[in-house]
Design brief:
The protein is of the alpha+beta class and 292 residues long. The chain contains 8 helices and 9 strands. It has a 9-stranded mixed beta sheet, sandwiched between helices. Helix 1 packs parallel to helix 6. The longest helix is centred in the C-terminal third of the chain and has 26 residues.
């Protein structure tokens, strides 16, 4: 792990990501290119001196951009557990894309910077954030949305945004959400939907950790750990391509287990048996296509 070529692994990951991006259908094309951004901690060991966290404990942190429309990882960065998350937003997003962010990414300076770079954001903010309303928009009485306005965020002369943005407030049950965005082209209800889709990256982290075992540490160095994580991402992209091409589905543990059994069975077969199986499959396919 510690000696493998990081450049080559990054190249394979980026090329597979492009291939999967061209192949997989978009789930929400009307919402634009959506990229959820979040960090995930990796439990480290004491010998990993570079992975400083707090109280003597060691953790590393991955910073991932996740393509919501296609359900695949886009970009990956690795830092120690205390590594800041906000700087990676601009590195992950491309112009025209919309980053979906949780409250930890609230930064009025970054909101201005993103708009200047032609990058979009849908970010949950703290409920007590100071705001100056510039223009209010009507909301429907039967909508989950109770507030929609163009505002400046922050205290004037301290941390107020230079660029105006949109603030949407909506309520689910007894819980209120305040969402800052520069997407004036969407309805307030669509903004609420976009933020809800951020949960997909959490589901990806859970699935990735549980089924691909990528956080069961093999390497100890930062280089080796990055190789291990990239191997897991490459595996996921290959699965995404396989499941779509062979079954027209997204990645599922059912298909992973099925594929594992298939590979295991084929490894036990002789070359003549594999050739015979392929010939039978081709014959069955031709018969199927020949049927009226």
């Amino acid at each position: 792990m510690n000696a493998r070529g990081l450049e080559q692994f990054l190249y394979v990951f980026e090329e597979l990501q492009k291939q999967a991006g061209d192949l997989l259908p978009q789930r929400f094309p009307e919402l634009g290119q959506l990229v959820a951004i979040d960090g995930s901690l990796i439990d480290a060991v004491l010998s990993m001196a570079w992975a400083d966290y707090r109280g003597g404990s060691k953790k590393a942190k991955t910073h991932i951009g996740f393509d919501i429309n296609r359900g695949i990882p886009r970009k990956i960065f690795l830092t120690d557990g205390k590594g800041p998350e906000r700087p990676f937003v601009c590195q992950i997003l491309e112009p025209g894309e919309t980053g979906i962010l949780d409250r930890g990414y609230q930064s009025h300076k970054n909101f201005d910077l993103l708009q200047q770079e032609g990058k979009h954001f849908v970010c949950r903010i703290k409920a007590n954030t100071i705001q100056t309303c510039l223009e209010s928009y009507p909301v429907s009485a039967d909508s989950i949305v109770f507030y929609d306005a163009k505002v400046l965020l922050g205290q004037k002369g301290v941390n107020q945004t230079n660029e105006s943005l949109r603030l949407v407030g909506y309520q689910i049950g007894d819980k209120q959400f305040w969402i800052a965005t520069d997407r004036f082209d969407l309805t307030a209800e669509q903004i609420a939907l976009v933020y809800k889709l951020r949960w997909d990256i959490e589901k990806f982290f859970a699935w990735w950790k549980r089924h691909l075992k990528v956080y069961h540490l093999i390497a100890r160095s930062q280089h080796g750990l990055m190789i291990q994580i990239l191997a897991g991402l490459i595996t996921y992209l290959l699965l995404a391509i396989y499941c779509h091409e062979q079954h027209g589905e997204s990645v599922s543990i059912h298909r992973v287990r099925q594929l594992r059994n298939q590979i295991l069975n084929e490894s036990r077969m002789t070359e003549s048996q594999i050739l015979e199986q392929k010939q039978q499959l081709n014959k069955s396919t031709k018969t199927l296509h020949a049927s009226p």
